[in-house]
Design a protein that fits this description.
This protein is mainly α. The protein contains 8 helices and no strands. Helix 6 packs across helix 8.
Length: 138
C-alpha cells in the first residue's frame, strides 16, 4: 500500500506533503522519476506555499498523469475522468481541495500534515484501482 511507504519520506526525509506523495508514488507505482525530477514538486507543498490547492492533491494528479498520459494530456482519454475522480474524492473527504480548508481539519503540530498525506494515499489508491477496474471492463 502507498500508505505503508510514505513515512520514510515524510518523517525520515522531512519532505513536505507534495514531495512525500510524489516520492512515495514514484516508488510504489514505479513511475521512473529521478530525484531531480521530484525536486520540482517542492513548491507545491502548503498549497503552492499560499494555502491554495493542497500539495498532496497536486502530487496525486501528477501520479495520475504519469500513469495515464502517454505523451500529451490532450491526447489522453483517461486523464480528465481519472483526475475528476481524484478531485471528487478529496472534496468528499474534506469539502475542498484547498490547503487552507484542509489544514484546519487534519493538521497538528506534532505530526504536521500526516493525516492529510495518509488520506491522500488512500484516495490515490482508491481512484487508481477503481479507474483501472473500469478500463478493464471495457
Amino acid at each position: 500500500m502507498l500508505k505503508d511507504i510514505y513515512d520514510k519520506y515524510y518523517f525520515e526525509g522531512n519532505y513536505n506533503c507534495a514531495e512525500t506523495i510524489i516520492r512515495a508514488g514514484n516508488e510504489y507505482y514505479d513511475l521512473g522519476l529521478h530525484d531531480r525530477d521530484m525536486i520540482a514538486f517542492g513548491g507545491f507543498g502548503a498549497g503552492m506555499q499560499t494555502g491554495n490547492t493542497c500539495g498532496a492533491v497536486l502530487a496525486g494528479i501528477s501520479i495520475l498523469s504519469m500513469r495515464y498520459i502517454e505523451k500529451k494530456a490532450h491526447e489522453s482519454t483517461d486523464i480528465k475522468p481519472v483526475t475528476s475522480m481524484l478531485m471528487r474524492e478529496f472534496r468528499n473527504r474534506y469539502g475542498s481541495v484547498l490547503c487552507k480548508d484542509i489544514k484546519p481539519q487534519s493538521f497538528s503540530p506534532e505530526v504536521r500534515c500526516k493525516n492529510t498525506i495518509e488520506a491522500a494515499c488512500d484516495i490515490i489508491e482508491k481512484v487508481i484501482e477503481e479507474y483501472d477496474r473500469k478500463l478493464s471492463e471495457k
